[in-house]
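FAQ: What does the model actually see?

It sees only this:
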Amino acid sequence: MKRRKVLILCIDAGSHDYLTASTLPTFQKLAESGFYLHANAVIPSVTNVNNVSIATGTFPEVHGITTNYHVDRATGKGEFIEDNRFLLAPTLFEAAKTSKFADKTALFVTKKKLLRMLEAGTDIAVAAEEPPSEYIQMAGPVEPIYSSEINWWLLRAVTETLRRDDPELVYCSTTDWVQHKYAPDAEHSQQHLAVLDQIMSDIVDDNPEREIYITADHGMLAKTTALDPGRVLTEKGIPASAIPIIKDRYIAHHGNLGGAAYVFLKNLADTPEAIQKLLSTPGIEEAYTAEDAAATFRLHRERIGDIFVLADETTVFGELETAVEPTDVRSHGSRHESYVPIIGYNSPWSATDFEYNLDVGRLFLESLR
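And it is asked to produce this:
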């Protein structure tokens, strides 16, 4: 009996509008031979939350990653989430090894932070941002993190690793610098995806029986207004601060401006009034208590702020000098960027089995039991 082999590709910000704006014959072939569906990303629609959800097959209430930047509610101190200290659930790789599904597992990511977060259980773990020397020989020189070329490098490294090592389980996640800078119909966007599609053609030709799943962690939209929910409340007499959930070290991507934020109140008794004032603020579309946010979005209750806010389609949240500022940025994090595609090829499941991007990981885990 032939061993089952799986490749999961998460195209960072690879939403439906980007895929349909480009000519992608390989992706189209995979979809026509398998399935293509519109699914949900996990909210907040940011990289950490969704990649970890896919790579553990669980929601944040289980795996514990609710943001790119964690604030300790007891001390008020914050830190970037860039390793697995906060991770509460096993990875797909660990499950694959425990169940004897895989002799070899492989993780390929563009960003170093994802490597450190998800590498448990991997036999091969490569970040294009700082690749091992042997992979420079395999896939070419190191490319800048803020480029299209780094994602092409990443997929070439996957191609060569499949040829050399043939790992049973491979997870690959790109970075979204291109989508942060260019709309779906821009030439740069289309070239970026066209080259990824071409490299995927080689992978499919080399691995005609491998299960392939292509999805995204979130979408991307143009924003015109930046808002600081903490300053909004403070100016209205409610002492508060807010951290945009998108906050990370890759400032050139998004300027730490995103469509979701956690609000921290000086006095929890102010919560009802604070929510009322936030919801009356133009640009803020949704506001939840911590309890309601955890229940509604399946977030880890101890890893979020006192209030969870989501922006409208053209607004982002940030730590600003004033409460509201004009901006010109492409970003994500809100409900509006939480719709993603899933392509399945050689899959034992049908499109109706998927509702969220994380179902790729969830169904894989269930099949191991």
